[in-house]
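Dear Dr. H.,

I hope your travels went smoothly. While you were away I took the liberty of generating a structure for the chain from your last submission, since the lab meeting agenda had it listed for discussion. I wanted you to have the full record in hand beforehand rather than looking at slides cold. The sequence, exactly as received, is reproduced here:
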Amino acid sequence: MEQSPLLSVVVSVYNHGGYVEECLRSIASQKVDFPFEVLVGEDCSTDDSREVLRRLEPELPDCFTILYREHNMGAVANGEDLYARARGRYLVDFEGDDFFTYDGKLAEQLRFLEGHPDHSAVYTNCLVVDALSRPNGERYPECVDDEYSYRENFYYCLPGQSGTLMCRREEYFAARDRFNELKGYDFYPGDRRNAFLFLTMGKVRCVQERWSAYRHVRKGGSSYSATRQKDAAFARNEVLYGKALLDYALCYGDEEAQSWARLTCYRLRFKWSHGSRRVERMGEVLRDALRERSPLSLVLAQPRWYAGLLARVLRGRSINL
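The corresponding predicted structure, in token form, is as follows:
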């Protein structure tokens, strides 16, 4: 009788022909003593990704399932379909151009979550590499503490790169669904949202070891960081994200979550209350802030954010704008 997987690893593939073999072999080489599944979604790439996968498929363990899409679904739909198929108690969401650097990564993360029910997620550090899988000298803006915090989230420091994450699948999906019911924006980085959600669900551990490699290709990449433009649409979405974050915290978070979400919300509202990409009038934002508790802290949220980032730069930390 087939055992149900304890862990689901979902891998989105689109134009990763030069990288996907390294990715999948790093997953296949993981040393685990529990059943897990790997769901790969190949989204009609325009390069040789599909040919590489067909060549690799006979060599991969039986726990691998490769889905060859009949038409291009797009990154969101491809990922959502993989999520819908996942059965494991725990979840890892991976991109087809990244790879694991330690063969005990999955086992150690799962062991930690099994032994720490008060933690909602566990991330690790990552090595940032170029198109040839060589370290490119960048440092990912990841948390340097063993435990993530709302303060780190406010300063756009992430607990780790998304591909390093392992979380409790059903709990994460439920929180994400609740958040999506409140959101009014079109698009904003999911890793920032997720980091906040996990904090409202429990503790978040940050393993200070580089157990994954994150490929950052500055030219020709398809990631959010490679393609985003800080135009009027970006400004609007950022403000609406801040408002959704506060709404979620008021519904599902404790007092600490609400306090930091309120700071983030007003920081973004003040940020985009002037200039050619203005979303709201500064007078309107100021009026709302003065109606809140501790209005001065809200008015000073934006300069506080810049001062905090400057302090981190002076200490040699990587930051995320």
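Two observations you may find useful: The first strand starts at residue 7 and ends at 13. Residues 232-252 form the longest helix (21 residues).

With kind regards,
E. W.
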